[in-house]
Amino acid sequence: MSRLWLSGYRSYELNVFGDQDDKLKVIKFALTNYLKAQIEDGMDWLITGGQLGIEQWAAEVGLELKQTYPELKVAMMLPYGEFGGRWNENNQDKLQTLLARVDFHAPVSKQPYENPQQLKNYQEFMVTHTDAATLVYDPDNPGKPSYDYDLIKTFSENHPYPLTLIDFDWLQESANEYAEKQNNGFNFE
After folding, report:
1. Of these four, 82, 121, 123, 189, which has the most CB atoms within 10 Å of its CB?
2. What pairs with residue 80 in β-bridges?
3. Run of H or E including 6
4. Which family does it belong to (predicted)?
């Protein structure tokens, strides 16, 4: 059994503001290709969070891949109870729809948000309950994932815990491949 924690930038950090954004199509294309390879290498649990952006998109891609790889399980772990409760109604609905579709979901802390320690506890839970991590993150362009990146780097100094970075160069290569396939008549919709 192999459990992968996948996280990364929030949607606003990537300037993606809608489901039809071309950047989102490229990101999902990159995630799909990456996750297919991970599944074929033995990953059977994709574990992500509920943040708007890479985490929710990873869950969506994982759920789509279950059609081809029914053995894949998708879990969403939330840092605290009532997570997303202050979001606008549309974003709350997206989260609730995903939570209803994944194989497992739970908050690490059942309490509503009280303090930053809950976020640290969430990170600690994720690194100790997964076998590897992948971040859609580029250290040259810091953002929210820098907290996870720093924790994973520190954790991996004393534990066998591989980290893969899907950085902006990787995403650009994926964009080129996506464009080439579109020009050759492949339809990704």
Report:
1. 123
2. 109
3. strand 3-8
4. Belongs to the UPF0398 family.
